[in-house]
Design goal:
The complex is a heterodimer of chains A (about 180) and B (about 90).
Chain A lengths: L1 E3 L2 E3 L5 H4 L8 H10 L13 H12 L26 H17 L23 H18 L2 H8 L13 H6 L7
Antiparallel strand pairs in A: 1-2
Chain B lengths: L24 H7 L3 E3 L14 E5 L4 E5 L28
Parallel strand pairs in B: 1-2
Antiparallel strand pairs in B: 2-3
The chains are: A mainly alpha (about 180), B mainly beta (about 90).
Chain lengths: ~180, ~90
């Protein structure tokens, strides 16, 4: 068992599924978090390194203030890999030289454009108590202004026109002024 | 996900909110006269704040006083159309 922010993540599950145990994290968000923390797709919770777990906890405790993901420049199209017969030492000296050069001069400021989906949604992530509070505030707002949505919440009935003759059990369970889940 | 205004809730941002231009808006604000309307789908705009409306619920006109918090909602949300069922033994009561 791994505990992150007081939530148990089962050891045997894949990391990206285990993350969905957190209220407010679904499959998409879990996948994004994994990508951010460099956790591969078939990694189980038991295989996570202590560093990864601590960075996960650090990220989830305040997603908005987490440092931005470093963006490393990719190889240029004209890059040609050294031939396999090149001695290792030669490559190592070359790389060492490159790293030295990069340390001396700041990396190129050209930022790679974000993918087509728009901004990174992770900084605005809300989980657990924050999200629950937001939901409760929204319901309280609807109730205060006296709208139909607020009224239906107070009655514990479906809000969006579903049938109530039978079923509607999810609404009976969840729709409250002081919603818990 | 495309960025759009939260108040539009799914409607294209370039269209802006749907609303009905009430001709007697100014008069209603100064004289405190209620505007009688059937336009339940009219979005409440910031300049509606403080105006009294009589919104049709399908049967009669219910009074709605617009406050600051209602901006962005529809007029119809505040005139309920359904009545709670109450069982009565005799019809004439």
């Amino acid at each position: 068992m791994v505990h992150v922010l007081g939530i148990q993540l089962p050891d045997r599950e894949l990391a990206r599924y285990a993350l969905t145990h957190i209220y407010g994290v679904g499959h998409k968000t879990a996948h994004r978090i994994c990508a951010r923390l460099l956790i591969h797709d078939t990694c189980r919770v038991a295989d996570l390194s202590p560093g990864q777990i601590s960075s996960l906890a650090a990220f989830l405790s305040s997603p908005s203030t987490a440092p931005a993901v470093p963006r490393f420049p990719l190889a240029l199209p004209r890059f040609q890999p050294p031939s396999p017969s090149t001695p290792m030492r030669e490559i190592q000296t070359k790389v060492a030289h490159l790293i030295k050069g990069r340390n001396a001069a700041p990396p190129p400021s050209k930022v790679h454009p974000l993918p087509r989906g728009g901004r990174d949604p992770l900084p605005s992530l809300k989980i657990e108590t924050d999200l629950r509070r937001e939901v409760r505030e929204n319901i309280a707002h609807q109730r205060m202004i006296g709208s139909y949505v607020g009224k239906r919440h107070a009655m514990g009935l479906p809000v969006r026109g579903q049938n109530t003759q039978s079923n509607a059990s999810t609404a009976r369970k969840l729709n409250r002024i002081d919603r818990f889940g | 996900m495309r960025p759009s205004l939260a108040v539009l809730s799914g409607r294209s941002a370039w269209k802006g909110p749907f609303f009905v231009a009430f001709p007697n808006l100014k008069e209603a604000l100064t004289n405190n006269v209620a505007i009688k309307t059937q336009a339940r789908n009219c979005t409440i705009l910031p300049n509606f704040v403080g105006i009294r409306f009589q919104v049709h619920n399908g049967k009669d006109y219910l009074p709605v006083l617009v406050t600051q918090d209602m901006v962005g909602h529809k007029l119809g949300e505040f005139a309920h159309t359904k009545k709670r069922f109450i069982y009565r033994t005799t019809k004439n009561k």
